Here is the input.
Amino acid sequence: MDAVERFAELVRSADLTLDRGALAIAAGADPAQDTDRWLAALDRLAVGVTTLDGLKQRLFAEAGFIGNSKDYYDARNSLLPHVLVRRLGIPITLAVVTMEVGRRAGIVLEGVGMPGHFLVRPAGTLDHIDVFDGGVEMDMAACEARFQAASGVGRNVPFGPHLLTETPPSAMLARMLENLRAIYRARAQPADLEWVLRMRRELPGAGHPELLELAGALGDQAQWLEGAQLLDDEAERADPLHAPHLRTAARALRAHLN
Here is the structure.
């Protein structure tokens, strides 16, 4: 199986965990990676940790994990093996590290998909932790200030617990893929964009926009027929409102062969 097939098999299984899911994503960029090596690295980080304070001490003081504010859009920030080696990441990958090391230590943490900035917290509490900022604890006022700064909205946008809901593992993986999608699209890397979009389509929430972009990524690699076939196949299943648009896009890809 290739990396996309392995990812699809994993996310459909009952054995999905954040660490294995994040490593399955990273295998798209490096199919030869040694998954057991990185699982063992997470195991070692958890040795001797018994409390939340001990977890934060281990990760942010001793190991030095921190957000990469200097080069936020470096793709390595979204690939777990690089995060473990470089100790640099973005909020969601640092959340994966924190949650998975915590899980190994018996500390149950949940991801919090606050718009603009991902947080973690002990399950069932409102004690939020900013893993991008060295594990600093945040009360509701601090969360609101970070939300406003990250999203660029004004104080007229109501803030509250409705913006601090738990994010399940599948949604965290989707968010990681969306970060990579934006990076590879901006850098015009269609081969990388292809595997990211194929993985994204294995998770809830994907639809025609992802399919159209995937077909375009195939076209950018001169795989026009494959891209057109994907669109035609979907058009056969699509409702009458969307099918014509899919067929038009398929014809546009085939026109490159003329």
